[in-house]
């Protein structure tokens, strides 16, 4: 450090400080005061410096002491290491001197083991016979205890023999031969446990203690297996017949029994009963439903948690049933058997009749499909080929009959009404075609429903879901139009029987309903994205924001851009349904009462906002589909409810309610109660009395039947 430079800097700083303090004449009187202050500050700084120096010196002193101590410890360690090194040189000689001691210790250990097992060694034949008797009597816990004692004696003796440096093979063979019957007892017990486990579902209903006993024995053996494997890792010794893996074998037995139960439900063959497959599938459904009920109610308390027994059984039934169905399919199906299998797989198995039954409620997405997509597609393909083959055979036979009629030399039949000649061929072919197309429509619906379910489980899997559903909606309408054209061209009123009329109506209704259902799937996709925004309607947050309704309109318009690929009738239908759905959700939001009004001004502000948003949504739908929006708008209901909400005079409120009921007779007393309660200006008793009076007075009126409004859908 440059002391002179620091000294000059200090003097310059002091000079500057003095100049600042003595800028005015009157400050000279305070010179002594300034001097005392500087002296005190100097003394304080010097004291701090002394303290700092003392602290540094103390630290240095402690460090030197620690270094001295470390040096002493290092010298001591060095001496000890030297002594250890010298001691190691005497270890080989000590090893040879202690050889006799080691051998004596080995003999002592063997004698101790022999003494501990003398009772079992001398009584092996008696113990074996007693254990067999207990097995025959079904006393499995006693059996296992005796077997465990015998196995422990054998394994301890074999382990002592294993530790000998020079093992005598003859001793090992003799010991194993002496305990040979023990392994036979283990096999007998295992056989008995297999029998008990195979009857688990039946036994649990009568004697659950038998299952608990078997599981206790299996878990004890699992612990014995774990101990034997651990000792093998440490010493290399593994007792005979270990590991037994009885838990794994028990689960295999359970799976085998499940497979047998499923196969056992097939009581008929095709030659015995044409409905054999339908009967088998129904018996299988009843069996699985009842068995899984037993599993959920009785197995869970009896089985250890690590078995995860419910999921284990579900997977067993799923796997075994899948294997058996594939075997049936490989053996060949006929006619409507394809439809029976497909319908059962897609609807019954995964639906509320089985896996989704309220008492089971099993998530089938975890266990996967019963049959792979490839197998299902192959089934559908085989059914269509079979249907085509049967259809061609029937037409060929019918054509042969027609040719035969031509050769008979008789005049054709005449039409009763118009006198035109005809034969039965055309109409029979028509009926068969209608039946087959109707059947195809049912298969088509099952495939569409499964497609929709898989999509909504993970919406990223099918990026063009909307486009596919639009195609399906158009296809269904095309089927309907073709059926209507066929009716116009080939249907003669009054000529055909009821069965023919029923087949035509079944064809029309199948594809009409499927069109409507697919359209709902289309809207479900759109409205799923809007659910949170509908939840925000008519809430405290909604009062100060237009975001919910703006977002609803923008999102729907985005989806409607894709809907332009719908045919005109379908587009109008979808827009009409979307309009009704928006109206229904808005009215539901109003009647849920998730906002409270303290003053009339707040209520009026909310009512005006509702009227404004109703007009906004109506204008949106009018722009998208003018004919649909103007024909039957549900937003008039929203306006009527807003007027009731806006009414200031309680006396006029009754008149508004009368007008509302006159216009919409399907509005219920509960709807009116919720609407009046939303106002917040009447007590519960006043609301109840007013609504009750209005409803009773309206019931006395004789009014003609009116069309249903969205109130019927709430």
From TrEMBL:
GO molecular function: SNARE binding
Keyword line: Exocytosis, Transport
GO CC entries: exocyst
Transmembrane segments: none
GO biological process, one term: exocyst localization
Gene3D superfamilies referenced in this protein's UniProt entry, alphabetically: 1.10.357.50, Exocyst complex component Sec6, C-terminal domain
Coiled coil: none
Family under the similarity heading: Belongs to the SEC6 family.
PANTHER family: EXOCYST COMPLEX COMPONENT 3, EXOCYST COMPLEX COMPONENT SEC6-RELATED
Protein name per UniProt: Exocyst complex component 3
Species annotation: Timema genevievae (Walking stick)
